[in-house]
From TrEMBL:
<comment type="similarity">
    <text>Belongs to the class-III pyridoxal-phosphate-dependent aminotransferase family. HemL subfamily.</text>
</comment>
<dbReference type="Pfam" id="PF00202">
    <property type="entry name" value="Aminotran_3"/>
</dbReference>
<dbReference type="InterPro" id="IPR015421">
    <property type="entry name" value="PyrdxlP-dep_Trfase_major"/>
</dbReference>
<dbReference type="InterPro" id="IPR005814">
    <property type="entry name" value="Aminotrans_3"/>
</dbReference>
<comment type="pathway">
    <text>Porphyrin-containing compound metabolism; protoporphyrin-IX biosynthesis; 5-aminolevulinate from L-glutamyl-tRNA(Glu): step 2/2.</text>
</comment>
<keyword id="KW-0413">Isomerase</keyword>
<protein>
    <recommendedName>
        <fullName>Glutamate-1-semialdehyde 2,1-aminomutase</fullName>
        <ecNumber>5.4.3.8</ecNumber>
    </recommendedName>
</protein>
<feature type="modified residue" description="N6-(pyridoxal phosphate)lysine">
    <location>
        <position position="277"/>
    </location>
</feature>
<dbReference type="InterPro" id="IPR049704">
    <property type="entry name" value="Aminotrans_3_PPA_site"/>
</dbReference>
<dbReference type="InterPro" id="IPR015424">
    <property type="entry name" value="PyrdxlP-dep_Trfase"/>
</dbReference>
<dbReference type="GO" id="GO:0042286">
    <property type="term" value="F:glutamate-1-semialdehyde 2,1-aminomutase activity"/>
</dbReference>
<keyword id="KW-0627">Porphyrin biosynthesis</keyword>
<dbReference type="InterPro" id="IPR015422">
    <property type="entry name" value="PyrdxlP-dep_Trfase_small"/>
</dbReference>
<keyword id="KW-0963">Cytoplasm</keyword>
<comment type="subunit">
    <text>Homodimer.</text>
</comment>
<keyword id="KW-0663">Pyridoxal phosphate</keyword>
<dbReference type="InterPro" id="IPR004639">
    <property type="entry name" value="4pyrrol_synth_GluAld_NH2Trfase"/>
</dbReference>
Amino acid sequence: MNLATTPSTTTASEALFERARAVTPGGVNSPVRAFTAVGGTPRFITSASGAWLTDADGNDYVDLICSWGPMLLGHAHPDVQAAVAGAVARGTSYGTPTEPEVELAEEIVARTPVELVRFVSSGTEATMSAIRLARGATGRDIVVKFAGCYHGHVDPLLAQAGSGVATLAVPGTSGVPVSSTADTLVLPYNDREAVLAAFESDGPRIACLITEAVPGNMGVVPPAPGFNAFLAETCRAHGALFISDEVMTGFRATAQGGWGLDGAIEGWTPDLMTFGKVMGGGFPAAAFGGRADLMAHLAPEGSVYQAGTLSGNPVATTAGLATLRLATPEVYEHLDATAHTIRTAVSETLEAASVPHTVQTAGTMFSVFFREESVRDFAEASQQDTAAYAAFFHSMLDHGVYLPPSAYEAWFVSAAHDDRAISTIIDALPAAALAAAT
Ligand code: PLP
């Protein structure tokens, strides 16, 4: 093992990045993988095992990205590998119904309040399909979302907020026609007044409100106590549907996802939910689900069309099923304890180096904001010292810890993060805190 310490050799990654940029925009197939926000060259990973990534230069890193959430059990879990190998040996796609789809749907129904589930291949497809279903079922057009919540690269959901005010949105990226976001209303997160005002003025035209169960895409920003219940109730009062996006939090924040932190305790359920990441066990699988009467609007039973050549793919659903079956209460206890140890160490070390920061948590998920005050919405998340994060990030990377290359992302741990992984992180922290302080 060649644990990366300053200066580590990265020539193989640099050469691969050079080749990648010649054939792929920005050299990456998803923008978050680039080091745009922190500078430098993304590491090209050649293998992964447990809590560790190995790059093309032979450097090992403790992985705190976990493929942006999916790898709940760690990399290359032997039982998941065996299940996948068995599925591959039986053929990789049939275009017919299969038993693993039924079993995975049963597992999701058992863990969440949804009654019926439809599989797709990405979280983007899940949220896109859920809002189409909501529009079809209600006969209304407007979709309400929150600034800083990411729901995949769905045209109408790529709208950004006007400065803290409920406005009809303009597209947040080029390539999205104004007409695609004309019926998207973007509100500041955790702002009950803005929600009430939007429903007051546009209630009869609102098809649905979509929110991350716990936002993790502006860093982790928990809902204020009762906020999700308030959203569910406000939607119900106005005949709109409440969609809880659990693509990131599902089977990750708790065994019951973000819903396990509030809805399961308070006794309310979303009308529709979306899932992805963990339920695919590292393969392209995602889903949306909800009340049976709503899901009945989908083709072939209903008039809302939705389809996919590889939806419910037997290899992907086998990997997801194996992952969820292995995600026992003990696994979540381990994730909780591991996340607690890491965030406490990070906070104490930053404190000792007088680096302003705040750590925010949702079940096993957490993130570190480089600002003193707690963060309630996207506007506040944006007010942090991203240069300090970049310095912190690079020092951690040089000492063998791969963090998300952006200050606006959640940090993920896995069941495979053991004492060795944790002590590597703890050993790396003092130098990173000093780097962030200067
Ligand atoms: N919804 C949420 C909450 C997400 O975090 C993501 C991706 O990070 C998506 C939807 C989109 O999922 P995918 O990247 O699989 O399309």
